[in-house]
Amino acid sequence: MPVLSLKIINEQGKILAEHSAEDEVMLVYEEEYKPGDKIILTSTEKDIHLMVQLDDAMTSSFVYITKNELIYHIPFEEKKISYSPNSFSGNIHLLSARLAANEEIGNYKNLALNVFDQHGDTGCYPHATANVETRDESVFAARNAIDGVRENRSHGKWPYQSWGINRQDDAELKLEFGRRVKINKIVLYTRADFPHDNWWKEVNLTFSDGTGIKWQLEKSYKPHILNMEEKEIEWLLLNNLIKADDPSPFPALTQIEVYGVEAN
């Protein structure tokens, strides 16, 4: 069984707190975070499913890790406004990570959800990337589309963060799972801050198995639901985003949910 370790390090690499344990680890840190602080999660085994909660003000995430060490950069200033103001705040913090139980691994669920997704090759999945994020601002980052926050009736700082495409016609978002999964339903919450927002009347889904689906959408704040024949994939691409004929140039995506089970 893997030994899991959590530690907090500062900008200079000094260890501020740490704890290790087999199968499940918890860490209490009784100081305020400072700019440059990082959370380091290590495991003696990789290619495993974990339940991770790096802040007690945020929900836990079911993730699949492909590296022995994961580095989480604690957000500050502009990076922080896409998170709840309660997160990573105060002078006491509870962090945890554990092996996912067999029933958690086998459950039918939203396989796209990762509250703790970040930029870069994190080794932690699901992971969202895009070829554009409006002005490189945190409130328009690709990670916002898989953070579990569905509120879509405005735009900007939390809880209205979204994936913004900077008016780019060839914008696309890639969602990687890090392993093979079987999916049969996709849900989109397109941003609906009307009349500020435009909306997509059609989007395309391209899958790692070489297939694709064109999906007609409507102007709505409600979820768009696509029930589909089961596919076994490792990633999907949301692209060919066709705007509606509307004066606004600002369509955006609040959330993508992908439902299914593990392939193995």
From TrEMBL:
<protein>
    <recommendedName>
        <fullName>DUF7402 domain-containing protein</fullName>
    </recommendedName>
</protein>
<dbReference type="Pfam" id="PF24135">
    <property type="entry name" value="DUF7402"/>
</dbReference>
<dbReference type="InterPro" id="IPR008979">
    <property type="entry name" value="Galactose-bd-like_sf"/>
</dbReference>
<feature type="domain" description="DUF7402">
    <location>
        <begin position="128"/>
        <end position="238"/>
    </location>
</feature>
<dbReference type="InterPro" id="IPR055826">
    <property type="entry name" value="DUF7402"/>
</dbReference>
